Amino acid sequence: MASKLTQQEINKVVWKACDSLRPVMGSGSYKDYILTLLFVKYLSDVWNEKANDLRAKYDGNEEMVKRQLKRERFVLPEESSFDYLFENRNENNIGELIDIALTKLEDENRSKLAMVFRSISFNSETAFGPTKQRNQILKNLLTDLNELNLQPSHLENNDVIGDSYEYLISLFAGEAGKKAGEFYTPSEVSTLLAKLVDPQPSNRICDPACGSGSLLIKVAKEIEGKNYALYGQENNGSTWALSRMNMFLHEEDNAVIEWGDTLNHPQLKEEDSLMKFDIVVANPPFSLDKWGAENADADTYKRFHRGVPPKSKGDYAFISHMIETTYQDSGKVGVIVPHGVLFRGSSEGKIRQKLIEENMLEAVIGLPANLFFGTGIPAAILIFNKAKGSNTNVLFIDASAEYDSGKNQNKLSEKHIQKIVDEFKKFKALPALETENGEVLTDKFSYRATFEDIKSNEFNLNIPRYIDTFEEEAEVDIKEVNNDINQLKNSLAETEAKMQAFLKELKLI
Predict the structure, then answer these.
(1) 336, 347, 353: which is closest to 313 by C-alpha?
(2) Of the candidates 3, 31, 39, which has an alpha carbon nearest to the alpha carbon of residue 15?
(3) Are residues 126 and 186 in the same domain?
(4) Structural domain of residue 47, as residue ranges?
(5) Quick check: is 501 in a domain?
(6) Can you list the residues of the chain whose pLDDT is less than 70?
(7) Which helix (H) or strand (E) holds 169?
(8) Buried (b) or exposed (e) across 176-201, using 16+ Cβ within 10 A?
(9) Which stretches of 371-437 are DSSP H helices?
(10) In terms of DSSP H, where are the helices of 214-314?
(11) pTM value?
């Protein structure tokens, strides 16, 4: 039996296909074209395998095959298949043929793919240049991707395409810099956050700044079966389309992903109110400037009743939105933030104090530096829990040293993720601490703070205020060091004397 196609092999071929576009456009644009064609290739190969299995089952009865294919989770018109496009790769209007294929694919799967391809055109002279050049580029792309057999039976694991998709997103994010890093959360960070919020069957889960959708998918993977509902909103049009395709590839067909500005135009609503969720997670853009502070006082949904964040820093605007969209007595929030959120004063300090006084903050987890694409600054995870009850304790974890060094980015390994999650579970299992002072749980790593602890620190959540990571240096024995220096001097003098003797013997001096 032939070996199955690995994720690394798929990634290599797809990344090679990117070479065709680099001369004519930046990675911020060509990711949309590459990933769209990868999407079509995958759907086509899945469809072909289904059709072949049905032919074997019904002894080649094409009418039965067609009838059964109509029951599949998606429809693939012949003109939308990758095979059709590859067969026509030498046509002078190949760009137009690809656009027509995408439109038909969208129209036939309207409930799942509506509007997904409307912002992209393979027949654009602006994007690809003159017709002759455009045709050659598109032919190269189709030829490269045709090397892949993505039929499920040929794949090493069923999720390899989704994983490859996220791998590519991470590479594009690394090239595009800070702005790309805003919509891509590294896989291991998403896994950590998903485990910390501990989703359960029947949960309603939302990411109001969902980017490519990878974080939502990670949270869903923590739940056995499909008994959950996923919701998201994304402001960037091409990234929104990417998220919709990513959901489709992971068979999250019922996920609701809306397009728009969450802070100024929230789309996830029930009648005239914001939709409520069991769990809300996000990696919102760090310290977003011009987020809409001028409209916050008149907010229809009263999300900013604890205070209006600074107009140049939207971190607490996202946090406020997330908290207001969770169920009153059971909702949980997990959010990735820059460390400034922990200690900045003024209006942010007042909002932070009110959140702590309302006993919603459950954990503050400091992450290692250089985990995110485009920025080396360390981030933190905040966990809010509306079901804390009378327990007012807050867990602080300093995980800044928990990483494996990488060439471009540091990485959290499974071991590091498990250490953090185990510490969080240990904290949650402890009874309330009936004292004004907190306690060290694990030396140099975690601390259980009481409300009075935090109050005495003026509601400043800066992790070093709670966890002492200072390492004393070993005492230096001056006398011993001096002896070592003298021995080295004597040894050096002996070596120089021997060298002089050798040089004289050779008559070089």
Answers:
(1) 347
(2) 31
(3) no
(4) 7-176
(5) yes
(6) 1-2, 27-28, 158-159, 161, 169-183, 374, 470-474
(7) helix 160-176
(8) beeebbbbbbbbbbbbbbbbbbbbee
(9) 414-429
(10) 214-221, 237-249
(11) 0.87
